[in-house]
Amino acid sequence: MPTPILTSPLPDLLTHTDGTPVTKESWSARREELVAILAENIYGEMPPPCPVQWVVSESEMTCAGFVRHDTVKLILHTPRGLFTFPIQVFVPTEAENPPCFLLLNFRDALPDRYFPIEEICNSGFAAAMVCYEDVTRDNGDFSDGIAPFLLDLPRTEATAGKITLWAYAASRVMDYLITRTDIDTAKVSLIGHSRLGKTALWAGANDDRFFCAINNMGGCAGAAVERFRNEGAETASRIARVFPFWFCEKYAYWANHVDEMPFDQHFLAAANIRADTPRRIYNCDAVLDRWANPAAEYLSVCEAARVFALLGEAQPFGGVEDTRIGVPELFIAENAEPFHVFGSRLGYHLRRGNHFLSRRDWVMYMTFLSGEKG
Ligand code: GCU
Fold first, then answer.
1. Which of 55, 80, 96, 207 gives the lowest tally of CB atoms within 10 Å of its CB?
2. Averaged pLDDT score across all residues of the chain
């Protein structure tokens, strides 16, 4: 049975830092270890939550009158004063207690190509959106947006990078969403594409209130196991050089010493698994998106399945022995066969086409969250 060829052995999810084996009972402690390792070495420390107020600044009916659209201003009472950012919320009025998506998006203007509001609402889901650059700009300026309100500057080794600040904002949006009475607040799923897929997973690792963390092609520093090198895939050393501000400063060291890392990106997927909540995780890749290293993301999903199995919730993924990841070309050949695997807690699909958050992906997410088996 082919197994992935790794540049060095993967740090084991099911062994505690002190070398003792992880048991079902000790998973919660292990999960906390994973979050601490990821904060210290990759993303930086998550600032503590702050109180949130809000004002619905505009409310209208849209989509032929079937959907309520609220523009809401969130007011964060940070330790250094008030910081505000807008979000958009769409709720189908014909659905009772609809589950909801929270999209971390690249742009603030609507309509947006990553956000098919009408289709989502017509399928019985509500949908909220926050534009990440309304939180803080996607650059190395830490005097921008929310950053100076939360961080002690200048930054030190463990200070949060921008991914952590965007994830922090997702949690503050959640503070607001759980107060709404027109959505199923136990079923708010966080979704992000690419750099925001990385962010969705990190937010899910830090906040147990998200029902599902959806990583759409997050790739390097997302779910892609760094030690599983495949043709055309982004490397840690490149991402740390080009986007150093996404991470804490310590990551720059590890990015050039990958085989010494006491972690890998399967820790991020697994840090989303809670013993005591019905948390789900979904990952998607595209065959023309070699940059995101699809087979390496799938490996993380398989690793996450080992944790679910330990918790007594077996998922239909094969662990590292999964025959697919032994043949990474299956994920990136132009004629690769798309496939999907849906478990009760873990979902994955590989689709044709390139790097994009497409209607096809949304359909898969909605199907998975509707509880249908693939
Ligand atoms: C770049 C970056 C990726 C990232 C992507 C995106 O390609 O190298 O790591 O995921 O941008 O966010 O679109």
1. 96
2. 96
